[in-house]
Hints:
Shape: globular
Oligomer: single chain
Number of strands: 3
Distance between the termini: 23 Å
Strand order of the largest sheet: 1-3-2
Number of domains: 1
Order of helices and strands: HHHEHHEE
Low-confidence stretches: 34-44
Structural class: mainly alpha
CATH topology: Arc Repressor Mutant, subunit A
Amino acid sequence: MIARRVRVLVLMAVLLTAVLAAPGQARGADAIEVQSAHLESDAPADGWLLAKLSPGTARTVDELAADAGVAVPLLLSELLRLELEGAVERLPDGRFARIAGNGAG
């Protein structure tokens, strides 16, 4: 059920990115097709995001995306999955932190 929700949210992110594309970028169906094709093929192995979130530190989405070298929609879907699993939390300032003692590795 969580995986289904994550897929829906990723699709929503892809749709918004396609609609709000900057001038000169692919829009509409072309952008959705291109971005959807890259979402799964660019996904790193499991545990990649928790490795970028050291216990006791909080990082922004931009910092994590740059450090991991992944697209923001992919990063957001993984952050949501980890948040629903109780491995990370979104702080009031928008940064993400690993939850201590979550046992994730």
